[in-house]
Design brief:
Number of helices: 14
Shape: globular
Strand order of the largest sheet: 13-14-17-12-20-18-19
Structural class: alpha+beta
Number of strands: 22
């Protein structure tokens, strides 16, 4: 017999290793010896009140053996001689598109402009230490995409787009901890993601797929509005009739290429702002109502904030407790910041993007000349401003949070996790009014919602500009571009995802669409 229960466990009770069995036996009024196992289905922390509660959803096995294998099975086939599906980009969307192709009996041929995870690390070191950006290998481009060197956050609201559990189970199958199947806000950690990504690559190759690194697409050969071939940076043309375009939100060269070829694009609303970085102990104290160090059973505290300011949302994005701020530029001459966390989230700082909604149809009248690329051009100008304000390197412009809100230059800055370093700059006057004025009011409101958040001990760091794609590549109900037959825009780069999980689900859907009628 199996019984599902909701259990509420206090912090003191959580210290006991047998507490779930104890609680279950009491609620079910049965002997502990009759419980053969307790499987945790869901776990979350309720810290809204000083008495912190762990909420568990569990399956209690009564005189019945716990299953040792997952109900999910991945039927990978030998596709070495099967019909090909070409996939451009090897981020979450491209990886899951490739895996799904193999399950469905088709051969994925993946073209990735960047390097594998091991070789990619050298280029990340060059950004942090030498301030040099390899435009094909950086925090955005390379095996696993931007997700590889991020927190590995797996929380998604896209529950209607596909089977979220299946995405998680596949990550576990490839080496992620099964804790992601349980946590309400799961994450893998930037120290563990590269191995998971490498395992996915090995599965694709094992079953006959192909992955070509350092292979950038430079043109599409199109005849009669149908994909015929892909031109590569080595000048070779690769015949192709089904192409999944999963290049990510930062592959600007692809947007420019499509625009030049008069292939339909659409401007898309997005968000930009800054990273705010607090000492982690401040966020812990606010969220856990504690002084001093948090309890050892509590993870580094996070937060989620939103405020409407002058008809635009100001909100936290990609919050990284116990994490680092990293340089996420994809070209020299720009500064972009993002956040990441290791699996233990044990760094001394907490950082989060704080961004403002940009309505491309109302907010950018001076950029109308760029048509569908107006949001992209606005984004680029902000990143160039940050490059100049930082000192024309990967040093980022920064300001104490209170100085930013009160409109004064910071004479000095707080310690930071951002390796290239910070330069004090008047971001309150450098940011466009559209963004800066709303951020200032937003921070004041956040200080009211979280007492202690608004503090001179926090820095804001510019700019957080790559929250999502400022361009949408349209597609029809069959997930195919309405103008170009055989082209399937996919994931964040197409404007159809906003994170690892939603991109992975979209990759699977595009694979299923691309194989039809083949």
């Amino acid at each position: 017999m199996i019984k599902e229960l909701q259990l509420r466990i206090s912090l003191k009770e959580e210290e006991r290793s047998d507490i779930l069995v104890q609680k279950a036996s009491h609620i079910l009024d049965i002997d502990k010896e009759d419980i053969t196992g307790v499987k945790v289905l869901r776990k979350s922390i309720d810290a809204r009140k000083p008495k912190i509660i762990f909420n568990y959803k569990v399956a209690v096995y009564i005189r019945e053996v716990l299953p040792k294998t997952s109900e999910y099975q991945f039927d990978y086939k030998d596709v070495s001689k099967a019909k090909p599906i070409h996939i451009i980009g090897f981020g979450p969307a491209g990886m899951y598109a490739a895996l799904r192709c193999i399950e469905l009996g088709f051969k994925p041929i993946v073209l990735e402009r960047g390097k594998n995870v091991k070789d990619r690390r050298r280029d990340l070191r060059a950004i942090n230490q030498d301030h040099f950006v390899n435009e094909d290998s950086n925090y955005c481009f390379g095996e696993g995409g931007a997700g590889t060197y991020s927190d590995g956050k797996l929380y998604t609201r896209s529950l209607k787009r596909g089977d979220v559990r299946r995405i998680f189970e596949n990550l576990v199958f490839h080496g992620a901890t099964d804790q992601i199947l349980v946590d309400a806000h799961p994450h893998i950690g930037t120290n563990k993601l590269p191995k998971v990504v490498q395992n996915i690559r090995e599965t694709i190759l094992k079953y006959g797929g192909e992955i070509h690194f350092e292979t950038r697409v430079t043109d599409f050969i199109i005849k009669n509005n149908k994909i015929q071939a892909i031109q590569l940076n080595n000048s070779d043309d690769m015949p192709a009739n089904r192409v999944i375009l999963a290049t990510g939100h930062s592959a600007r060269d692809i947007f420019y290429l499509l625009h030049k070829k008069e292939i339909a694009l659409e401007a898309k609303s997005f968000a930009m702002g800054v990273r705010v970085e607090h000492p982690q102990h401040i966020i812990d104290a606010i969220q856990y109502h504690c002084s001093g160090e948090r309890h050892e059973l509590l993870p580094a505290a996070s937060y989620s904030l939103v405020q409407q300011v002058n008809e635009r949302g100001v909100y936290s994005f990609c919050m990284c407790p116990g994490g680092f701020i990293v340089p996420a530029a994809t070209a020299n001459g720009e500064v972009v910041v993002n956040g990441m966390s290791p699996s233990k989230r044990n760094n001394l700082f907490a950082n989060s993007g704080i961004v403002v909604e940009i309505d491309v149809h109302r907010d950018l009248p001076k950029y109308e000349q760029f048509g569908a690329l107006k949001g992209l051009e606005y984004q680029k100008n902000l990143e160039r401003m940050a490059y100049t304000a930082g000192g024309r390197s990967q040093v980022a412009p920064a300001q104490r949070l209170t100085d930013f809100v009160e409109g004064r230059l910071s004479p000095d800055l707080n310690p930071t996790s951002y390796q290239p370093g910070l330069n004090s700059a008047p971001l309150h006057s450098l940011l466009p009014k559209l963004i800066g004025s709303r951020l200032r009011k937003g921070f004041e409101a956040f200080g009211q919602k979280m007492k202690g958040y608004y503090t001179a001990e926090a820095n804001i760091v510019g700019v957080e500009s790559r929250t999502s794609s400022p361009v949408c590549i349209p597609r029809n109900a069959q997930l195919e571009h309405p103008q170009i037959k055989g082209l399937f825009p996919c994931g964040e780069g197409g404007g159809y995802a906003g994170g690892i999980v939603s991109a992975a689900m979209d990759g699977e859907r595009c694979a299923e669409a691309a194989i039809k009628d083949l």
